[in-house]
């Protein structure tokens, strides 16, 4: 299932000349790939006794503030990635520094971490230098790596914003033709890339497909499923493993133990060369003809020989059917270009994995974001959980997701033997928690709302169907500001509250959050979930009290009024209180109630509100089919809709809300206090006042 390599410089000695134009003097007599750069030859490097660590290579621009940002003459001249092919190596290195300068300024303008993108600058330049995007398809697995890619594809002026009408934090096919596939939660690039490769072959096209995955997202099971399928189909595609010396695995906190030696660099170039790989394929074909026994013996010899020069684990990729090349210094543009050019020139070698080592710590001092001075919901949750864990030795924590909230370090340090961070393994986290529950422990399974979607089958069959007492802590619930639709927690109310055995609740404030931690700790006969938003709490000096368990299925009335009842769920209770204040200024006194529970619903509270008011407005920061639907189901079956009550739901719109500030997103969703108050005014026939309020 090969594809032609037209348009690529092939051969072992394809190289740059002094004028930085590619030369194509193709020979078959020199190993490894020769690149005319001003540095030591590969041969002398291979025999050197000095093994430099990758962290000592390259130049780092240290920027204490944006006023010291470098000038960017080369970057300013780049309109498309194709222009990179006209640059010299010296200019490519200068361009890397210019991009680094731009990305570092993002830290100060938007307070966003850019370390993964900083570590991938040279890799990004090499990819766009060798391949012909957008004809060739480059897929990025982790959005954190893609800022340099966005800079090179005409979006660098909007990079700092990630706000309303600004550049997306993710790759998006709607935003740029250079984004071959949308990224989000990670581990999808190889699957999508394989699909593109197979579609290319069926249609008889000739483009290359490159999937870039990092050492965090490669821990997810889907990545290995995709590699296994790629090996079986034997489609031509290239997988770049960007080993950025970072992993969520607790035993790998110091990053990858694989280093770049002169010998490994030398061998990577030999492995990627056409001569070596064609010879290897010829040998495999010959041993197959000789007999199965000889073929298996030769395969073992090949495996052991490659294992002697490759890192531990390289044979895993070979077993999955991918030809392994590496490790390659991810901060050495010359080496990257040499290896990638050779790989790109191949006609029919099946899937190839290039192991690239990068180092996020190179720019660590310049990319540290200012420590937050506001207390968050997560801070309060962890403090409350620590208090419960000190009283109950059966409480354990399982965390899953692409990154761990810093507040969880408090629990991890206090109870290291009762804390399990499994990384991007949400499915495992859920079933692991079910097993812990079966063993007599009390697991709190902490997963961001958007990532819990990945493990729904396990939630249904391994937890809810078996009535396992797993306590799901759903973080980053609702709108998430600049992280946009990918990280938005819009659906958990609907998909968790529909489960037969699940208790679903949400706190209105930090006090209620503390009480719900205590409530969850006391539930031992069924699963329970509670959600809270990403934001800060109002009182930064808030002291977490001792949690008091709440009666299951019991809401509360906060403010008594007439005619209109506002029934809020979770954080939207605060917006209902804001609406109450606005309406009070207009002479209206409405009721505000806190539902607390979506399931089981406080049917007595809902019935009382229906019987004592003309209008009931339910408010939630979730999609259609959530809390409001449970209320509607009850009041319809209870006959309340046959009486005087009129019900109106306020939910997230049926769509994806793009990046904006949290307040802007709430306004776009129609969930602000002003929107809630305007809805009440409209129901009362005071349309003009509603319009004035919104203006």
UniProtKB/TrEMBL annotation:
GO MF terms, alphabetically ordered: 1-deoxy-D-xylulose-5-phosphate synthase activity; metal ion binding
Domain Transketolase-like pyrimidine-binding: 375-540
Record EC number: 2.2.1.7
Catalytic activity reported: D-glyceraldehyde 3-phosphate + pyruvate + H(+) = 1-deoxy-D-xylulose 5-phosphate + CO2
Pathway noted in the entry: Metabolic intermediate biosynthesis; 1-deoxy-D-xylulose 5-phosphate biosynthesis; 1-deoxy-D-xylulose 5-phosphate from D-glyceraldehyde 3-phosphate and pyruvate: step 1/1
Record-linked Gene3D superfamilies: 3.40.50.920, 3.40.50.970
GO terms classed as biological process: isopentenyl diphosphate biosynthetic process, methylerythritol 4-phosphate pathway; thiamine biosynthetic process
InterPro entries recorded: Dxylulose-5-P_synthase, THDP-binding, Transketo_C/PFOR_II, Transketolase-like_Pyr-bd, Transketolase_C
Keywords: Isoprene biosynthesis, Magnesium, Metal-binding, Thiamine biosynthesis, Thiamine pyrophosphate, Transferase
Metal-binding in keyword set: yes
Top enzyme class: transferase
Subunit structure: Homodimer.
Record family assignment: Belongs to the transketolase family. DXPS subfamily.
PANTHER family from the UniProt entry: 1-D-DEOXYXYLULOSE 5-PHOSPHATE SYNTHASE-RELATED, 1-DEOXY-D-XYLULOSE-5-PHOSPHATE SYNTHASE
Name used for this protein in its record: 1-deoxy-D-xylulose-5-phosphate synthase
Source organism: Eruca vesicaria subsp. sativa (Garden rocket)
């Amino acid at each position: 299932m090969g594809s032609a390599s037209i348009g690529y410089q092939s051969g072992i000695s394809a190289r740059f000349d002094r004028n930085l134009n590619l030369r194509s003097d193709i020979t078959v007599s020199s190993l490894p790939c020769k690149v005319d750069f001003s540095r030591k030859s590969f041969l002398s490097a291979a025999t050197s006794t000095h093994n430099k660590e990758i962290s000592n290579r390259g130049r780092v621009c240290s920027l204490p503030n944006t006023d010291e940002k470098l000038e960017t003459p080369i970057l300013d001249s780049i309109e498309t990635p194709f222009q990179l092919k006209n640059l010299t190596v010296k200019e490519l290195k200068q361009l890397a520094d210019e991009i680094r300068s731009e990305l570092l300024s993002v830290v100060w303008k938007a307070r966003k971490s850019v370390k993964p993108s900083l570590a991938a600058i040279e890799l990004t330049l090499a990819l766009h230098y060798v391949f012909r995007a957008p004809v060739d398809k480059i897929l990025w697995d982790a959005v954190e790596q893609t800022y340099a890619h966005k800079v090179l594809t005409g979006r660098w002026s909007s990079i700092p914003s990630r706000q309303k009408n600004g550049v997306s934090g993710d790759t998006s096919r709607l935003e740029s033709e250079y984004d071959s596939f949308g990224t989000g939660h990670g581990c999808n690039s190889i699957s999508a890339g394989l699909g593109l490769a197979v579609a290319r072959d069926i249609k008889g096209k000739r483009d290359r497909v490159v999937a870039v995955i990092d050492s965090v997202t490669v821990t997810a099971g889907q990545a290995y499923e995709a590699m296994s399928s790629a090996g079986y189909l034997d489609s031509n595609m290239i997988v770049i493993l960007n080993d950025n010396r970072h992993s969520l695995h607790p035993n790998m906190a110091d990053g990858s133990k694989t280093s770049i030696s002169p010998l490994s660099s030398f061998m990577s170039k030999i492995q990627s060369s056409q001569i070596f790989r064609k010879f290897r394929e010829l040998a495999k074909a010959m041993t197959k003809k000789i007999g199965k026994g000889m073929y298996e013996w030769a395969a073992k010899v090949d495996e052991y020989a490659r294992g002697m020069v490759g890192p531990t684990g390289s044979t895993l990729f070979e077993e999955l059917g991918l030809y392994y090349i590496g490790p390659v210094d991810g901060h050495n543009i010359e080496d990257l270009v040499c290896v990638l050019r050779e790989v790109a020139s191949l006609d029919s070698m099946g899937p190839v994995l290039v192991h690239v080592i990068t180092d996020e710590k190179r720019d660590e001092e310049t990319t540290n974001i200012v420590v937050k001075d506001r207390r968050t919901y997560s801070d309060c949750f962890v403090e409350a959980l620590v208090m419960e864990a000190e009283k109950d030795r059966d409480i354990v924590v399982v965390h899953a997701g692409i990154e761990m909230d810093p507040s969880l370090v408090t629990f991890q340090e206090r109870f290291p033997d009762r804390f399990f961070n499994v990384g991007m393994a949400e499915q495992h986290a859920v079933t692991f928690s079910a097993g812990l529950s079966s063993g007599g422990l009390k697991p709190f399974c902490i997963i961001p709302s958007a990532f819990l979607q990945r493990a729904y089958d396990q939630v249904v069959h391994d937890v809810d169907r078996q009535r396992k007492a797993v306590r799901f802590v759903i973080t980053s619930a609702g709108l998430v500001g600049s992280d946009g639709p990918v990280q938005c927690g819009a659906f958990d109310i609907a998909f968790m509250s529909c489960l037969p055995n699940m208790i679903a609740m949400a706190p209105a404030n930090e006090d209620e959050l503390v009480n719900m931690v205590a409530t969850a700790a006391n539930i031992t006969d069924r699963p329970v979930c509670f959600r809270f938003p990403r934001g800060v709490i109002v009182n930064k000096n808030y002291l977490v009290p001792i949690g008091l368990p709440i009666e299951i299925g019991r809401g509360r009335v906060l403010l008594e009024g007439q005619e209109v009842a506002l029934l809020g769920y979770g954080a939207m209770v605060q917006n209902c209180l804001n609406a109450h204040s606005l309406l009070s200024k207009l002479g209206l006194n409405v009721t505000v109630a806190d539902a607390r529970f979506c399931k089981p619903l406080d049917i007595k509270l809902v019935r009382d509100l229906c019987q004592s008011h003309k209008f009931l407005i339910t408010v939630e920061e979730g999609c259609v089919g959530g809390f409001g639907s449970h209320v509607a189901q009850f009041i319809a079956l209870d006959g309340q809709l046959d009486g005087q009550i009129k019900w109106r739901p306020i939910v997230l719109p049926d769509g994806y809300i793009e990046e904006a500030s949290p307040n802007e997103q709430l306004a776009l969703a129609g969930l602000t206090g002003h929107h809630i108050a305007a809805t009440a005014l409209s129901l009362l026939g005071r349309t003009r006042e509603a319009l004035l309020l919104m203006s």
